[in-house]
Amino acid sequence: MNVESSAVIVEVLVEKPIHHYAHLLPPIFLVGPMGAGKTTIGKLLAKHLKRPFLDVDCYISKKAGADIPWIFAKEGELGFRERESRAMNELSALSDIVLATGGGVVERECNREYLKRGLVIFLDASVDTQIHRTKKDKNRPLLQNDNPRAVLENLYQRRAPLYQKVADITVTTGHVYPKQMMNEILDLLTAYAKNLENQSNAT
């Protein structure tokens, strides 16, 4: 991590104290398209909430002993999706975590059910933002073709309604710096936690 990134994390941690409410929050699951920033924001959020950060794709790779492109090449997308659903079942059962999911996780009904075990934040990114952030990434098998924009547009059209369906909170990415995004997310989480606290006090 470079000095600039470290400074961003420190500033975010100092500016938005949510620690009083963190214990009220369920597991937090980040969903959204490729390039939305789920890993970057997830790591920042986990540091702020003092929770472990987990990534579904990294978990799959570690268990398989191979990277995602290799799994796609040997087992096809169906094989990868089977692994992804098993990983979602295992990881979504954990408490007090921040979990970044893959872009296609919402397409399976069982995964959408697993997401109900926690609080879902949908990081919404335009296709232009996705193109900018993924154009040099060789670890995205679905984009290894002559027209990645067409693929991303098709995926977004198909998946956006599902992201919206599972989301408790929606945040648009790509238009502000990570620090500003974190401030927005932490404000929303604080309001969510306060509401939970009020509901608990009322019963």
UniProtKB/TrEMBL annotation:
GO biological process per UniProt: amino acid biosynthetic process; aromatic amino acid family biosynthetic process; chorismate biosynthetic process
Keyword Magnesium included in the entry's annotation: yes
Entry binding sites for Mg(2+): 39
Keywords, in A-Z order: Amino-acid biosynthesis, Aromatic amino acid biosynthesis, ATP-binding, Cytoplasm, Kinase, Magnesium, Metal-binding, Nucleotide-binding, Transferase
GO CC annotation: cytosol
Ranges annotated as spanning the membrane: none
Pathway listed: Metabolic intermediate biosynthesis; chorismate biosynthesis; chorismate from D-erythrose 4-phosphate and phosphoenolpyruvate: step 5/7
Official protein name in the record: Shikimate kinase
Organism: Moraxella nonliquefaciens
